[in-house]
Structure formats: structure tokens, C-alpha cells
Write a structure and sequence with these properties.
Length: about 40
């Protein structure tokens, strides 16, 4: 079984990954919206 420290470290890494994925998705959507806006203008 994994030690307590391994689980804590894994949870911190997973939380950081989810945060990066969330902000990356938001940034990609904003950039895509900007590109669509500029093309249709």
C-alpha cells in the first residue's frame, strides 16, 4: 500500500494539474473567441 506521504504528494500534483487544465481551457476558449471575432470583423 502507498505511504501517506506518497498519497499527499499525488493529491497535490493532481490538484495542480486540474488547476492548470482549467486555466488552460479558459485561455484557449478566450483566444479562440478572439480569433473568431477578428475573422468576422
Amino acid at each position: 500500500m502507498a505511504s501517506s506521504n506518497d498519497i499527499k504528494s499525488s493529491q497535490e500534483t493532481y490538484t495542480g494539474f486540474l488547476s492548470a487544465a482549467k486555466w488552460g481551457t479558459i485561455a484557449a476558449v478566450l483566444v479562440a473567441a478572439l480569433v473568431v471575432f477578428l475573422i468576422t470583423r
